[in-house]
Amino acid sequence: MSASQSRRERRYSQAFRQKVISEIEQGKLTVGQAQRLYDIGGVQTIHRWLRNYGKAHLLNTVIHVRMADEVSTLKELERQKRTLESALAQAHVENIHLRALVKAYAEHTSSATKKKSGTTPSTTRAKPAGK
């Protein structure tokens, strides 16, 4: 008899799976003990059952319990945050606009000064004292 003939595929009923999972979750058996006791093959079989049918996945669930006034306070704070973010964005736009106006004014006054004197401020330098 070859190895492929001696290997049998086993199908476990839903009731059997739940019984094994229940015993493991109650602490009556470990996974290894359940494998040996019930002759369950496969390293991951019981772990897969626990993941798919067990209650352990409920332990990782986060449940938020809040009072009614906490919910309204949270909504109010979120509304205030949106208002402040909007005001900040508006202030940034105004800042950019004002910087552009200052730059344009500086360029305009610089060109007006150049026209009057005929020289640029960067080309006229004072002679150092003592030379």
Briefly summarize what is shown.
This protein has 131 residues and is mostly helical. It contains five helices and no strands.
What does this structure look like?
The chain has 131 residues and is mostly helical. The protein folds into 2 domains: 11-58; 64-115. It has helices at residues 3-6, 14-25, 31-38, 45-53, 68-117. The longest helix is centred in the last third of the chain and has 50 residues, at 68-117. The model has no long low-confidence stretch (mean pLDDT 82).
Q: Could you say which structural class the secondary elements and strand pairing correspond to? A: mainly alpha
Distance linking N and C termini: 113 Å
The Cα radius of gyration reads 39 Å
SS field, number of helical segments: 5
- Poorly predicted ranges (pLDDT <50, ≥5 residues)? none
Strand content: under 5%
What is the domain total for the residues?
2
Largest β-sheet summary: none
Any idea what the shape is?
Answer: elongated
Q: What is the string of helix and strand elements?
A: HHHHH
Find the count of extended strands (DSSP E, 2+ residues).
0
Structure characteristics:
2 domains, 63% helix, 5 helices, single chain
Question: What is the strand and helix layout of this fold?
Answer:
Elements: H1 3-6, H2 14-25, H3 31-38, H4 45-53, H5 68-117
Helix pairs in contact: 2-4
